[in-house]
Structures are given as C-alpha cells and as structure tokens.
Write a structure and sequence with these properties.
mainly alpha; 8% strand; elongated; two-stranded antiparallel ribbon
C-alpha cells in the first residue's frame, strides 16, 4: 500500500504488533506465518459475524417500528370521519371544471 492510502482517521485504523518486520527500499515488509494468516482470518470472521448480527437486529427493529407506525396510521385514518363538506366542494368544482379558485 502507498503511504497516502494509510493516512486517515486514526480511530479507523487497526494496529498490528508483528515480530518479523523489516524495511526494504523504503517499503515495510511483513512476513506472516500461515498460522498468523489463519488467526487473522478467524478474528476477521468473528468481527464480521458480530457486525452482521447487529445489522440484522437493526433491520428487524426498523421493520417492527415501521409496522407499528403503519398500524397506528391506519387506525387513525379509519377513526376519522370523512369531511363531506370538502368532498362536496371538490365534486362541485369538478362539475364546473374549476379546481383552483381565481
């Protein structure tokens, strides 16, 4: 990776403590044993699994809230009496073909 790719928000970076590190031609060279790669993959899968679980929980909570809002809105609409005066004015305007007052 280029140095500018590594430059960013420090809180979003991951720090690795490695033993087999050396600098060659201005580049950082890291040697990872197969066991290190397996451990990194397992840790990454654990973190990704936790993230997936949190996303599913958030989606489920959102769907439940959305359902409640829908039910509350539907109940409010059903309880409200239609404004017959407004409907009569709209129908009269349609008959006269005048929807917007001059």
């Amino acid at each position: 990776m280029d140095e500018d790719e590594l430059d960013g928000d420090p809180s979003r970076c991951v720090e690795l403590a490695l033993e087999n590190v050396r600098v060659e031609d201005g580049h950082l060279t890291v040697r990872l044993a197969p066991a290190d790669i397996v451990r990194l993959r397992m840790e990454a899968e654990t973190v990704l699994g936790a993230m997936r679980t949190e996303v599913r929980r958030a989606e489920s909570a959102w769907e439940m809230a959305l359902g409640e809002w829908y039910d509350e809105g539907r109940a409010a609409v059903e309880l409200r009496k239609p404004d017959t005066g407004l409907l009569a004015r709209v129908l009269e305007a349609l008959r006269r073909d005048v929807l917007v007052p001059a």
